[in-house]
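Design request, C-alpha cells follow.
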C-alpha cells in the first residue's frame, strides 16, 4: 500500500528543511573559514610589508587591505619566478623592488594581482603619476 500524498509531501518538506538547515550551517562555516583565512593573509602581508619597508598604500580601507595582500602576492611570486627559478640577479631584483616602492595606490596592486611575473618590471615602469602620488616612497 502506498502512503497518502499528504504524508509524502510532509516528508519532502522535512527533508527540504533539513537540507536548508545543513546548507545554512555550511555557509556559516565557509564564511568563518574565509574570514580566518583573510585575517591570516592580512597578518602575513602586513608583516612582510614591514620587513621589506613597503610604504603604506592609499585608497579606501577595504582597498588598502586588499592592495597590501595583492602587493605581497605579486612581489613574492615575481621574486620566486624571476630570481629563485630563473636568472634575474639580486641587483636587477633590487631595481624592480625599488620601483615597486614608488607605487602607493592600492588599486594599482589590485589591478595587477593576476599579472605574470615576467611582466612586472614593464608594468611598474608603465604606472602613471596617479599610481605614484608621493615623491618620497619611503616617507
Amino acid at each position: 500500500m502506498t502512503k497518502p500524498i499528504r504524508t509524502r509531501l510532509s516528508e519532502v518538506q522535512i527533508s527540504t528543511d533539513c537540507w536548508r538547515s545543513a546548507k545554512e550551517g555550511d555557509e556559516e562555516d565557509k564564511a568563518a573559514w574565509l574570514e580566518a583565512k583573510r585575517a591570516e593573509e592580512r597578518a602575513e602581508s602586513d608583516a612582510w610589508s614591514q620587513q621589506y619597508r613597503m610604504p603604506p598604500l592609499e585608497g579606501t580601507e577595504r582597498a588598502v587591505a586588499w592592495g597590501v595582500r595583492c602587493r605581497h602576492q605579486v612581489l613574492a611570486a615575481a621574486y620566486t619566478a624571476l630570481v629563485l627559478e630563473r636568472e634575474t640577479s639580486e641587483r636587477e631584483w633590487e631595481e624592480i623592488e625599488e620601483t615597486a616602492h614608488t607605487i602607493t595606490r592600492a588599486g594599482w596592486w589590485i589591478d595587477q594581482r593576476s599579472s605574470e611575473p615576467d611582466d612586472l618590471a614593464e608594468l611598474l615602469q608603465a604606472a602613471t603619476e596617479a599610481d605614484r602620488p608621493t615623491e618620497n616612497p619611503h616617507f
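Comment from the thread starter after seeing the answer: thanks! Residues 5-131 form one domain.
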